[in-house]
């Protein structure tokens, strides 16, 4: 009986932790995606200085989140997002609208799919 209680407690802690991590990933990715969308809108409007400022805020936010995300997701995914961030930075400096929009779209995908990929499902368990 004691072993069953201990095992049940371990499973409960695992499930609660998984749901907490998933909620934190969902929330942080939504915040990042809002910032990416703001940069896209500013570049589409031709407000390059505003876009650079908004992107700097996005980059700073990502810099604080990436260490935490690295604990719960694949490092290659983190590297892809960081690589895309650096590309966007260079493209913003050149004011290349088409390339910036394309890279921001890729960044949107990269950020958006991580919470889905890390969701606790039977597929991710096995």
Features:
single chain; 126 residues; Four Helix Bundle (Hemerythrin (Met), subunit A); 5 helices; 0% strand; elongated
Structural overview:
With 126 residues, the chain is mainly α. It has a single domain (24-119), classed as Four Helix Bundle (Hemerythrin (Met), subunit A) (Up-down Bundle). Helices cover 90% and strands 0% of the residues. It contains five helices and no strands. Helix 1 packs antiparallel against helix 2, helix 1 (2-44) packs antiparallel against helix 4 and helix 3 (75-94) packs antiparallel against helix 4 (97-118). The protein is elongated, with a radius of gyration of 18 Å. The mean pLDDT is 88.
Please tell me how large the radius of gyration is: 18 Å
Which CATH top level class fits? Mainly Alpha
Strand elements, count: 0
Overall pLDDT confidence: 88
Question: What do we call the CATH topology?
Answer: Four Helix Bundle (Hemerythrin (Met), subunit A)
Largest sheet: none
Q: How much beta, percentage-wise?
A: under 5%
Distance between the termini: 29 Å
Q: Give the helix proportion (percent range).
A: over 70%
Q: Structural class of the secondary structure composition?
A: mainly alpha
Give the domain tally. Answer: 1
- How are helices and strands ordered from N to C? HHHHH
Q: If helices are DSSP runs of H or I spanning 4 or more residues, what is the number of helices? A: 5
């Amino acid at each position: 009986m004691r072993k069953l209680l201990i095992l049940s407690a371990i499973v409960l802690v695992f499930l609660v932790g998984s749901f907490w991590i998933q909620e934190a990933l969902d929330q942080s990715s939504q915040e990042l995606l809002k910032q990416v969308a703001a940069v896209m809108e500013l570049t589409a409007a031709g407000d390059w200085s505003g876009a650079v400022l908004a992107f700097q805020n996005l980059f700073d936010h990502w810099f604080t989140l990436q260490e935490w995300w690295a604990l719960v997701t694949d490092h290659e995914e983190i590297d892809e997002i960081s690589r895309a961030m650096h590309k966007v930075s260079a493209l913003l400096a050149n004011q290349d609208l088409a390339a910036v929009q394309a890279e921001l779209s890729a960044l949107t995908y990269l950020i958006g799919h991580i919470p889905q990929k890390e969701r606790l499902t039977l597929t991710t368990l096995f």
